[in-house]
Design goal:
The chain has 402 residues and is an alpha/beta fold. Helices cover 28% and strands 23% of the residues.
C-alpha cells in the first residue's frame, strides 16, 4: 500500500491511498479511510503516477551489445520511471522471423528490469507477419528509407498496412522525408485501414501532413524534438547528432503545440545509444542517436502538467499498442507499475547518473522541477533514490489484438 501521495484523476491531483494485491492495483481510496496492509510505503507529499510506457527504444541486443543490452537499457528505464518498453527490431540480426523473435525474447527474459514488448521489422516480403503476430509482436516496423529492407512505393505500403490489419497488429512507419512521407502514409492508411503509427514527428510540415487522417492513426514525438533545436548540434557536436535531425525553433514550437492539443498522440524516446568512443568520431562520421529512456520523465516534468504527462507518456502508448488497461493507468485491475515523484526535490540531469552504456546525454546539466524517487513494477520496488534495489524481474508482454 502506498499512502500519503496524490494521483492524477479527471479533476487534477487527488489524495489517494493506492492498495496493491498480487502485483495489481486493488483499490484507490481516501487517505482518511481505515486501511491495513502487510507493507505500507509512505509517499507523503509525492505524486504517484503510472509507470511510463516508452514505445520506441533500441536496446541493441543481439549483435550490438557494446552500445547497449537488455540489462543496461532496462536499468536506465527503471531509474527514469519507465516500467514498460517496446524494443525496436533494428539489431544484428534484425528481428524479421518468428525464430529471431523467439531468440531475442530469450535474451531479454531474466535480464530486463522492466516489462518489455518486442517489435518486428516488415519489408516487402510479408510471409512472416502471421507467425510474428502469434509470437506477440507489438508492432510491425516499416522503414521508408534509412535501412534495408525498406518499403518505398505506395502500392507495397498499402499492401503492408492491409496485411498487418488482417493480422490484428499495428504498422509503425518511419518516414524518410517527413512531410512528404507522412502524407503518403496517411493516404495509404485511408485505403488499408487498421492501426498505423507514425514515428518521430519532428516538424511543422509533418504535423500539417497528418491533417485529415482517418481514425486508427497515431503518432509520436521524442523528448529531444520537444526541447532541442539545431543549435544544439552546433554547440554539442556529434553528441546531439540524431535522425530526424534537430530542427529550427519554429518546428519545436509546432510539435509542442500539436502534442498539447492532441494532434500528436504520445511521447516516445527513440532511445538510441552509441558508445562515447563512437560519438567521438565527430559530426560527419559519428552515428546518429543518443540515450533517452532515463531522461524522458524529467524532461516532460519541465514541459507538461501531470495530467498531460500521464495522457501522452502512459495512457496513449499503452492504448495504441494494445496494452491498456493493463499498463498506462492506476485504475483497479491494472498492473501496479508506479513511479513516485517528489515535487519538493528539484533534480539535475547528470552524465554520471546515466545507466546507459552511452553514458553521455545532451541534457547533461539540465534541471527538472521534481525528482523520480521510486519505481515499482507489478507492486515490487525496483528502484529507489537513484539506485536499483532488485534483480531483473521484467516480463515479456503480448499485446491484446483488436
Amino acid at each position: 500500500m502506498l499512502r500519503g501521495g496524490r494521483i492524477v484523476d479527471g479533476g487534477g491531483l487527488s489524495p489517494r491511498t493506492v492498495a496493491v494485491r498480487d502485483g495489481a492495483i486493488a483499490a484507490l481510496f481516501s487517505p482518511t479511510a481505515p486501511a491495513s496492509a502487510r507493507e505500507v510505503i509512505d509517499v507523503d507529499g509525492c505524486i504517484v503516477l503510472p509507470g511510463l510506457v516508452d514505445a520506441h527504444v533500441h536496446f541493441r541486443e543481439p549483435g550490438l551489445t557494446h552500445k547497449e543490452d537488455f540489462e543496461s537499457g532496462s536499468r536506465a528505464a527503471a531509474l527514469g520511471g519507465v516500467t514498460t518498453v517496446m524494443v525496436m527490431p533494428t539489431d544484428k540480426p534484425m528481428t524479421q522471423t518468428a525464430q529471431q523473435f523467439a531468440e531475442k525474447r530469450a535474451l531479454a527474459e531474466g535480464r530486463s528490469h522492466v516489462d518489455f514488448a518486442l517489435q518486428a521489422l516488415l519489408g516487402p516480403d510479408f510471409a512472416n507477419v502471421g507467425a510474428l503476430a502469434a509470437q506477440g509482436a507489438a508492432s510491425f516496423e516499416i522503414f521508408m528509407g534509412l535501412l534495408e529492407p525498406k518499403i518505398d512505393d505506395d502500392e507495397t505500403l498499402a499492401a503492408a498496412l492491409t496485411i498487418v490489419r488482417e493480422a490484428g497488429g499495428v504498422a509503425a512507419v518511419t518516414p524518410l522525408v517527413e512531410a512528404r512521407d507522412v502524407a503518403r502514409v496517411v493516404a495509404a492508411h485511408r485505403r488499408a485501414g487498421g492501426r498505423v503509427h507514425l514515428r518521430q514527428i519532428s516538424s511543422a510540415g509533418g504535423v500539417d501532413a497528418m491533417q485529415g487522417a482517418a481514425a486508427g492513426l497515431t503518432s509520436e514525438v521524442t523528448p529531444h524534438n520537444l526541447w532541442l533545436t539545431e543549435e544544439a548540434l552546433a554547440r554539442l557536436g556529434a553528441l546531439a547528432k540524431v535522425f530526424p535531425p534537430l530542427r529550427p525553433q519554429a518546428d519545436v514550437d509546432a510539435v509542442r503545440k500539436a502534442l498539447t492539443e492532441g494532434r500528436i498522440s504520445m511521447v516516445a524516446t527513440d532511445h538510441a545509444p552509441h558508445t562515447p568512443e563512437e560519438k567521438a568520431a565527430g559530426v560527419e562520421r559519428a552515428p546518429g542517436g543518443f540515450p533517452g529512456v532515463q531522461t524522458m520523465l524529467p524532461l516532460l516534468l519541465k514541459l507538461l502538467d501531470y495530467q498531460d504527462l500521464v495522457r501522452v507518456a502512459c495512457e496513449a502508448p499503452a492504448r495504441a499498442f494494445g496494452f491498456f488497461p493493463r499498463k498506462g493507468t492506476l485504475q483497479p485491475g491494472a498492473d501496479a507499475d508506479v513511479v513516485v515523484v517528489d515535487p519538493s526535490r528539484p533534480m539535475e540531469i547528470r552524465d554520471e547518473d546515466q545507466a546507459s552504456k552511452a553514458r553521455r546525454t545532451p541534457f547533461n546539466g539540465w534541471s527538472a522541477p521534481a525528482t523520480p524517487v521510486m519505481t515499482l513494477l507489478r507492486g515490487q520496488v525496483i528502484a529507489r533514490d537513484g539506485k536499483m534495489v532488485s534483480r531483473p524481474v521484467g516480463l515479456h508482454l503480448k499485446p491484446g489484438r483488436m
